[in-house]
Design brief:
- The complex is a heterodimer of chains A (360) and B (333).
- The longest helix of chain A is centred in the C-terminal third of the chain and has 16 residues, at 334-349.
- Chain A is globular.
- Chain A has helices at 15-26, 35-45, 135-138, 182-196, 217-226, 274-286, 303-306, 334-349, and strands at 51-54, 60-64, 72-79, 84-90, 95-101, 113-116, 121-126, 148-150, 163-166, 171-173, 176-179, 202-209, 230-238, 262-263, 292-293, 315-322, 330-333.
- In chain A, helix 1 crosses helix 4 (182-196), helix 4 crosses helix 8 and helix 6 (274-286) crosses helix 8 (334-349).
- The two termini of chain A are 31 Å apart.
- In chain A, 24% of the residues lie in helices and 24% in strands.
- Chain B is an alpha+beta fold and 333 residues long.
- In chain B, strands 1, 2, 3, 10, 11, 12, 13, 14, 15, 16 and 17 form an eleven-stranded mixed β-sheet that branches. In chain B, strands 4-5-8-7-6-9 form a six-stranded antiparallel β-barrel.
- In chain B, helix 1 packs across helix 4 (163-178) and helix 6 crosses helix 8.
- The longest helix of chain B is centred in the middle third of the chain and has 16 residues, at 163-178.
- The chains are: A alpha+beta (360), B alpha+beta (333).
- Chains A and B meet through loops of A and strand 4, strand 5 and helix 5 of B.
Chain lengths: 360, 333
């Protein structure tokens, strides 16, 4: 069993953390327009930081300096942006054409209610009602060119370039949390908690990054600025464990809900530093924290940009698994979030330069 | 050079897991260099010489990783599903054997195909390591393996599963041995993770901050039977290839000319190479920091990214001769 005094630094996710996640999930921050989430982050971290700055791309770079000699400079990154839409053409009468920002399936869009622009104007992605469609027509997939966003008649309120996100309201459902943009407000909420309770033996360099969903753009410059000794990337990865999931034979699942934080060995953009993978596994096992290894393969996190920056930065990603990412609503388990926070907190509190003593 | 080549090609080290091959290379070069270190991504970086007033800081890179596979799932019956590390193709996997870094071995086979005329996808392939269940399986998610084929010496031609790019590493090691006097500060870089996107060379180049970069890697050939009229103008046995361009880099014209002059001075055969797809560590060097002149010396290689990659031994020896010549004199671009 875990030693209680040893684990005294662990924090329980309670109402305070859940309310923060709710605010973050409901906030709108499509890639390139992260201001709303940035505002919340700045508010939360300022009282706890040695230094806070917003860089040229909009990343929030927070330093919380530790005490003592030979402190490791540890970067933690979580992206603030979410996938969404950008208005591209005003067709009059409150009807707009749009482009997708980040990985969005067109099939997820028709009929969805949206929030548009900084004022969160309500809108809907209209579809031809079933009364008027032919049976053959209903079998055809929707195309982006055929879809429009309708905000009613609010002339002049929506402008080309405005972003739109799903109008989903965060809810707690028993052991689960449901909301939009859990990828990656969960990471943002986790990182805010870590800034508040950083251990003293390291310098904690927290990067709340922008534009991850469109190519890891914020993380790249954030890592350049911080030039850390190593990096942990906090994200949320798709779970594919639906009732149809067959335990015997499924070669495509990434992670399962309820099985704890997902540690990355490899994805399409990063081969995690094996020393850090081993360290996380050892930490989880020593503290009896459940974990899973994310199925290697596709996908990517900010690690893809961070580990290749400068002369190289040992990196590993840890994700809270969530179902239905990049759709109007994801479902995640509170226990997975708690265990992710526990794992990263424990890993940071016990971190010494020894972790990188051997060659990769 | 054959014993060295054999040793290098038979050492299993897929992208991201280059510890074994790095030790082998390190043991070979340690007595020959002034300084050695391993960077954050695992590349082995060796410096030889301080450089004189007329010398430059020259980075030579060959990647030590090879393509391989990584376990994604062990099913209840003990069959192993996998993903790829680098440009593995499904049709070169079937019937092949793999060797895990922890010593386990297995064969790759496939589910029954509905349509025999189509190449199966990786989702239809699996590794059988002789298990009946996943209980106490010796491998798990994230474990890595390389293709298992012995080195084959055909006399003039050499075959191995990892000529790409252990042959480049062999050329660099031999160049290091034969270079007696150089006006340059020479950085020999044995880079990692090339096959997954030039990642090791990217960080190594940043760390070294060289004046000029040259990679040594394999390139494809157009000298095998084919129906298509489009044919690459590179053959085995016609000398090392001086890269003009590939899918990711336009070689610096001045670097190309410098290499051509070197080959002509020695009377060595050489070929000019235009590769439509693929690229090398030279791209990462060219784009490092504010940019540097970069080029690539290629070893022509048939059947690249298959378990039986073939090179011509004379091409290899001539590549070493050319490289020794190039690094031994002041460079005027």
């Amino acid at each position: 069993m875990a030693n209680t005094t040893d684990d005294a630094h662990l924090s329980q996710i309670g109402n305070e953390q859940l309310q923060l996640l709710e605010r973050l999930s409901n906030a709108c921050a499509v890639s390139g327009d992260e201001g709303e989430v940035r505002k919340i982050v700045l508010e939360e971290v300022r009282p706890h930081a040695t230094d806070v700055k917003v860089d040229a791309l909009g990343n929030v770079l927070v330093t919380r300096r530790g005490q003592g000699e030979n402190r490791l400079r540890v970067m933690l990154a979580a992206h603030m942006d979410e996938v969404g839409l950008m208005i591209t053409n005003d067709e009059g009468e409150g009807i707009y054409r749009f482009a997708t920002v980040g990985g969005l399936a067109i099939a997820d869009l028709p009929g969805k209610t949206m929030l548009v622009g900084k004022e969160h104007l309500p809108g809907v992605i209209g579809i031809k009602p079933i009364h008027l469609t032919e049976p053959e027509e209903r079998k055809k997939p929707f195309s982006l060119e055929g879809l429009r966003l309708d905000v009613g008649l609010a002339a002049g309120k929506v402008k080309v370039g405005d972003r739109a996100t799903f109008a989903t309201v965060f809810v707690r459902q028993g052991p689960s949390l449901r909301g939009k943009a859990m990828d990656n407000r969960l990471g943002v909420a986790t990182l805010i908690e870590l800034v508040k309770r950083a251990p003293a033996q390291i310098d904690l360099l927290a990067a709340f990054t922008v534009q991850e969903e469109i190519g890891l753009r914020g993380a790249r410059v954030a890592a350049f600025t911080f030039n850390p000794d190593l990096a942990f990337i906090l994200d949320s990865t798709p779970a594919f464990d639906l009732p149809a999931w067959d335990v015997d034979e499924n070669v495509r699942y990434n992670t399962r809900l309820g099985a704890g934080p997902a540690i990355y060995v490899a994805d399409s953009s990063t081969l995690s530093d094996p020393r850090l993978v081993r360290y996380l596994i050892d930490t989880a096992e020593a503290h009896h924290i459940p974990y899973q290894l994310r199925q290697p393969g596709g996908g990517g996190t900010d690690a893809g940009a961070i580990h290749k920056q400068l002369a190289g930065i040992p990196s590993v990603s840890i994700s809270v698994p969530g179902r239905y990412h990049h759709s109007p609503a994801s479902i995640v388990r509170l226990s997975d979030w708690q265990h992710t926070l526990d794992l990263v907190t424990s890993a940071l509190f016990h971190l010494t330069p020894q972790v990188l003593a051997g060659e990769r | 050079m054959k014993p060295l080549i054999r040793k290098l090609v038979e050492t299993p080290s897929p992208s991201g897991y280059e510890t074994q091959i790095r030790s082998v290379v390190q043991a070979e070069i340690e007595p020959l260099v002034d300084e050695l270190h391993v960077d954050a991504l695992g590349s082995l970086i060796a410096r030889k010489g301080q450089g004189s007033a007329e010398g430059i800081k020259l980075m030579l890179a060959a990647h030590i990783d090879e393509i391989g596979v990584m376990v994604t799932q062990v099913d209840v019956n003990g069959f192993i599903r996998f993903t790829t590390l680098g440009g593995v193709r499904p049709y070169t996997c079937i019937g092949g054997r793999v060797c895990f870094l922890n010593g386990a071995s297995g064969v790759i086979s496939m589910e029954p195909l509905d349509d025999m005329s189509r190449v199966p996808t990786f989702e239809q392939l699996y590794i059988d390591i002789g298990l009946s269940s996943n209980q106490d399986a010796p491998v798990g998610i994230g474990d890595v393996a390389v293709f298992d084929r012995p080195f084959l010496d055909l006399g003039g031609r050499l075959v191995a599963k990892s000529m790409d790019d252990r042959i480049g590493a062999a050329v660099l090691i031999e160049t290091l041995r034969q270079t007696k006097d150089s006006p340059h500060q020479l950085y020999f870089v044995f880079s990692t993770q090339e096959e997954v996107g030039l990642r090791g060379a990217t960080t190594a180049a940043y760390g070294i901050d060289p004046d000029l970069g040259l990679s040594v890697d394999v390139t494809g050939t157009g000298d095998t039977p084919r129906r298509s009229k489009a044919r690459m103008e590179v053959s085995l046995g016609k000398g090392p290839a001086i890269k003009v361009r590939d899918g990711g880099m336009l070689a610096d014209r001045r670097v190309v000319d410098w290499m051509v002059r070197g080959a002509e001075k020695l009377g060595l055969p050489y070929q000019l190479e235009i590769l439509e797809g693929g690229t090398t560590d030279a791209r990462a060097m060219q784009l490092t920091r504010a940019g540097i002149p970069a080029g690539c010396l290629s070893i022509p290689c048939r059947y690249v990214h298959s378990p039986s990659e073939m090179v011509d031994y004379q091409d290899v020896l001539q590549a070493v001769q050319l490289l020794v010549e190039l690094v031994s004199h002041p460079i005027k671009l």
